[in-house]
Design goal:
about 290 residues, mainly alpha, two-stranded antiparallel ribbon
Length: about 290
């Protein structure tokens, strides 16, 4: 009985909206609705995959940002957790944790505004450079620096919060393992390599699998807030493509087709990665 309200919420907001995917196979018109819009079969999919330059550009940008965030952003909380775990002073650790957690609770509107106030053309850094006779930096609004800017924003906002899981796992590692390795002459680096990282391995694999499922979603709100300044060519990803072509452009069927394909690919990535995890002896997201 206690679970029923939560189940109803999940059904209403997660499962019932899946019915809307049928518009990917229709020439959907909002004023006609799903029931009266004409069926178009797979025409919306062929329109996309026949080489639409805007779609291909969105795919390219999405894959590049996914690769960058997987290689750079994903390991960052692990490194921060290891550094915090090595601090001998609990008070210092708590102070650092509190400071790096705060950005997670800010909306992307505030985060983007903070970066503009610091790195913008009239921001704090450029004003200081001008006051001391140096040329200002062109970062905000620079298409060439946009990917680096997005990555730095994600790291600043979410790295601290993501360390919570890793710190929780680190606190559960048996201290006697460190004592035994130290008695055998292992250095701090060897202890990290042979005790700490193996202890983190299950949670790293689990989060990496979940990350793959979300890999084609690279921050709609973060990007749409800054897209006008750098242009569509440098910033268009699959989510903004769906928004710009579906909501703004009125091409609902094609936008829904792109969103459906993205979801299917994400599901396939999760299932494949989970199967690989099982073969490596890990449980993954669910047991085999």
């Amino acid at each position: 009985m206690l679970a029923i309200p939560g189940m109803l919420v999940i059904f209403a907001f997660q499962y019932y909206p899946l019915w809307g995917n049928v518009i990917a196979f229709q020439d959907y018109q909002p004023y006609l609705g799903v029931g009266q819009s004409l069926w178009s079969g797979v025409e919306n999919f062929t329109t996309v995959f026949n080489g639409d330059p805007e779609f291909l550009n969105a795919v390219k940008n999405t894959l590049v940002l996914t690769l960058i965030q997987t290689v750079i952003v994903f390991p960052a909380p692990i490194v921060v957790a290891l550094v915090l775990h090595s601090l001998l002073s609990n008070r210092l650790r708590q102070i650092v944790q509190t400071i790096i957690y705060v950005p997670h609770f800010m909306s992307w509107v505030i985060v983007v505004a903070v970066f503009q106030q610091v790195l913008g053309g009239t921001g704090m850094i450029n004003n200081w450079l001008r006051a001391h006779g140096y040329d200002p930096l062109n970062i905000i609004g620079n298409a060439d620096a946009f990917r680096a800017l997005l990555t730095s924003q994600v790291m600043w906002k979410d790295t601290g919060w993501a360390t919570i899981l890793f710190l929780a796992v680190l606190s559960q590692i048996d201290k006697s393992l460190y004592e035994a390795s130290a008695a055998d002459g292992a250095s701090r680096w060897r202890q990290t390599w042979h005790v700490t990282l193996p202890g983190l391995k299950p949670i790293i694999i689990l989060l990496l699998i979940l990350k793959l499922g979300d890999s084609l979603t690279v921050g709609f709100e973060q990007i749409i807030l800054q897209q006008q300044g750098v242009g569509v060519d440098a910033s268009e990803v699959l989510d903004t493509y769906v928004y710009n072509n579906g909501i703004l452009g009125g091409d609902w069927g094609v936008a829904a087709a792109v969103g459906l394909v993205k979801s299917v690919v994400a599901l396939a990535l999760v299932l494949t990665a989970n199967k690989i995890a099982h073969r490596m002896g890990e449980e993954g997201v669910y047991r085999g």
